[in-house]
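We treat protein structure as text, and this decision shapes the records that our systems exchange. Below, we set out a record of this kind in full and without editing:

***
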Amino acid sequence: MARKYDYEYKVQAVKPAKEIGGAKAAKELGIPEGTIHTWMKAVRAGKLDIGEGSHTPAGAMSLSEEITMLRRRVKEQDKEIRRLKEENEFLEKTGKNQRMIFLTLKTEDGRIAGKTVPYCRMPGISRQGFCKYLTNKDRPWKQQGLADAVKEIVNEDECNDAYGRIRMYQALLLKQPEGAHIPSERTAYRVMDQTGLSRRPKRKPDGPAKADREAMKSGGLLKRDFHSDAPLEKCITDITDIPASSGKLYVSAVFYCFDLSVLGLAVETNMKADLCIHTLENALTAYPALEGAVIHSDRGTRYASGACRQTICQHHIHQSMNSAGGRCHDNARCESMRAGMKTELLYSRYDTKQMTVEELKVPIWRCFLSCWNNWRICSANGGLPPMIKRRQYYEALEPAA
C-alpha cells in the first residue's frame, strides 16, 4: 500500500532537498528519490508553494561560518566531557550515601526523569535503590544520635580521625553518650561509613621481619609475656626511623607494658648509643620509681654497648634482650605499637619526606606523648587510653588503703 503525504510534509521535505540535493534529502527522510524529485518539479511549476522560508544554496550558510559553528560545538562537547570525567572521579572516591545525595541534586529529587537512568549506571547505585532513597530520605534517621556521638568523638582531637571501627566502638562504650543506642561494632562501622568517617590508611609501614621456626624460640627475661598486672614492672623499648627531606630522624621510646603509655622519648639525627641513654634518662626523670623494673629491647649494638648497659645498671634496672639478633617476635608488642603510631598519627596526615628534621620533631613529640598517652584507644587496655587505665588502677587502690 502506497504511503500518503500531506501538503505540509511535502513543503518541509522540499526545503532541505533544495539545500543538500534531492538524493541526499530522500535518503535522510527515508522516502523514494523519485518522489522528492516530483515534488521539486511541482515547486518549479508553481503547483507547490514552499513560501519565503525556503533556503537556496545561495542563501545557505557559508563554509567558514559552518566550520566556526562546528568548532564551537566541539569545544562545548569537550567541556562537557571534562565535567563528566571530574564528576566520575569524584563519585568513585565517595561513599554510597554521598553518591545518592549527588544524584538527588542532579535530578532535582527525581523530578528530571531523563537524568535518572544515566546516573544510576554509576557503581553501587540502582534505579530501584535510588527510588527507595528518595522515599526514605526525609524520614528521621534512627541512628542519628549515634552518628552525632561519633562526630563528637572525632572532633575531640585531630588524631581521632584515625579511629577504625573497633576503637570507635570502644570509645562509644567508654563515653556512653546520651540518646545513642550502641548495639554492636558492626553498627558503629555502618554509621561511620554513611557519615564519611570510615578510615582507610594511606600508607602501610614495613612490618617486622618474619622469623623462621628456629627463630620463633623466645628469649630474654620477658619470654614474650608482655602482660603486666601492675605498673613499674615491665617496660619495652625500640628505635625507629622516619624519613625527612634533609635525612632521617631516629625516634627511641620506652613503653609501659601495664598501660602501653610512653614513659620516655628521645629524637635525634643519628642512631648511636647516646640515643638509648637519653631515652632512658628522660623516662627516669618523669618516673623515678622506674628503678627496679625490667626493660626489654632487641639485641642491637646500641643496647648491647657498654655505655648503655652501664647506665641501666646505675639505676638498678634489669636489662632484657632478645635471645638472638633478628628475632622480632621477642619484642612484638613494641613493634606493633610503633607501627600503629607511624601509620595512624604520622603517615596518614603528614608527608614526612617534604618536611625538615626540625619541622618533623613537633608532630612526633605530640604524637607520642600527647595523642597516644591521653586520647588513643588501645584494645589491649580493654578499650581505654593509657592514662585512663592508669588512673582507674590507682583509684581502685584508694579504698583498700
User: Anything to note?
Assistant: The first strand starts at residue 234 and ends at 244. The first helix runs from residue 7 to 20.
